[in-house]
């Protein structure tokens, strides 16, 4: 069963195109004869190497330092008057109690 595609071409040219396509398909499936030299084509995909520079702002550095500091460092900062460290210690103490 064949399903014919709807096109704007007349039926005679559609039939001619179908015959040409069948011949091309048959030629593509036949093995190359021994007299033909095998042709090899190599395509070299050139991928541009990407180089990116990342800069970290001072605020990001400070946030990272705060997030990775130990409880001992937090306690030392709280003793020196750091309000953020004092709030963090108070919050940790409240979580321990209840």
The assembly state of the depicted protein chains is: single chain
What's the shape? elongated
Structural class: mainly alpha
| Residue-averaged pLDDT | 74
Poorly predicted regions: none
One letter per element, helices H and strands E, the order comes to: HHHH
Kindly provide the radius of gyration, computed on alpha-carbon positions and rounded to a whole number of angstroms.
37 Å
Q: Please give the share of residues in helix.
A: 55-70%
Summed up, the helix count is 4
N- to C-terminal distance: 78 Å
Number of strands: 0
Strand portion: under 5%
3D structure, described in words:
The protein is mostly helical and 98 residues long. It is 55% helix and 0% strand. The chain has 4 helices and no strands. The model has no long low-confidence stretch (mean pLDDT 74).
Task: Map the helices and strands.
Layout: H1 11-29, H2 58-68, H3 71-79, H4 83-97
Helix pairs in contact: 3-4
Q: Which keywords apply here?
A:
single chain; 0% strand; mainly alpha; elongated; 98 residues
Short summary:
This protein is mainly alpha-helical.
């Amino acid at each position: 069963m064949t399903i014919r595609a709807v096109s704007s071409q007349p039926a005679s040219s559609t039939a001619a195109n179908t015959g040409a396509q069948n011949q091309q398909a048959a030629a593509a499936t036949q093995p190359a004869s021994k007299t033909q030299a095998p042709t090899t084509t190599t395509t070299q995909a050139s991928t541009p190497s990407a180089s990116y520079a990342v800069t970290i702002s001072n605020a990001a550095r400070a946030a990272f330092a705060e997030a990775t500091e130990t409880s001992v460092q937090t306690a030392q900062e709280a003793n020196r008057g750091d309000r953020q460290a004092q709030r963090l210690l108070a919050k940790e103490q409240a979580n321990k109690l209840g």
